[in-house]
Amino acid sequence: xxxxxxxxxxxxxxxxxxxxxxxxxxxxxxxxxxxxxxxxxxxxxxxxxxxxxxxxxxxxxxxxxxxxxxxxxxxxxxxxxxxxxxxxxxxxxxxxxxxxxxxxxxxxxxxxxxxxxxxxxxxxxxxxxxxxxxxxxxx
Length: 139
Prior knowledge:
mainly alpha
């Protein structure tokens, strides 16, 4: 397990600014109109944060193996969300990312049918964009 001192050091490396993310979404017309896209984008951001936690704690990112070469389908979205939340809990960051997790859960829940109709390419694109831009929302 991770000691309190290690948790504090990791916390410094993986702090997150949810307000900055909300501003980014509201300023981006595509996301403002498409809850499904913003939910998948934010899932990518959450997975980026999991990578940050793992890199800080383990020196590697084993969660990356779950991404199937970044070819994400609608069925993968729910699995990745639950597995990412499990990792956040494992690293004791439940409160740090609570707003982000709730936002994603709401978007994925209300857009489940819409996500199922999206192409795999569109899902993968939005997810990877979140994954790649995730560092923009660190504070």
